[in-house]
Amino acid sequence: MVEREPRNAFESFFRAVGRGIDGPATWVKEKVVEPNQQHYPWYHQKFRRVATIDQCYTDDVVCIHEAEAQYRRDRHVDSEILAILKDRYEDCCVYERPDQKRVCAPLFQAYNEASTNWFIKYGDMGALHDAKTALMKQKHRMIWERRHGPVGTGMKKETATE
Length: 162
Hints:
By secondary structure, this protein is mostly helical. The chain has five helices and no strands. The longest helix has about 35 residues, at about 60-95. The radius of gyration is 30 Å and the shape is elongated. The N and C termini lie far apart (about 95 Å).
């Protein structure tokens, strides 16, 4: 953009005053702020992973708070992924109406697997649960699987030991 010449002394004076006020601010923005700025869209903001609740000391309130926030973020992301998979399957069923069983089967299988995994991690804990409750659920599941085999396969048969 080419600036035209000032038409009179009044316009020349205000242009000089404007450059005197705006010049330093523009220089700071172009030379200091923009080179040190991290460029990412707001929806791609990356949060660093923090220690999980089992890695925190019992009296470390800050670590426990960060672990809770990480757990809430993870639960929200997993819930959104599940909703997206469900929407994709439903859209496929509507679009492929007469032949939906065959065409949409991979989407249905992916949704079922994701919903099973979501339920394993977050299900049956009530409305007000936290990272500690989820850790206890995981611990109880691991103990059950060690004693009785994978959940859903039935209990192991007692073998006679002599």
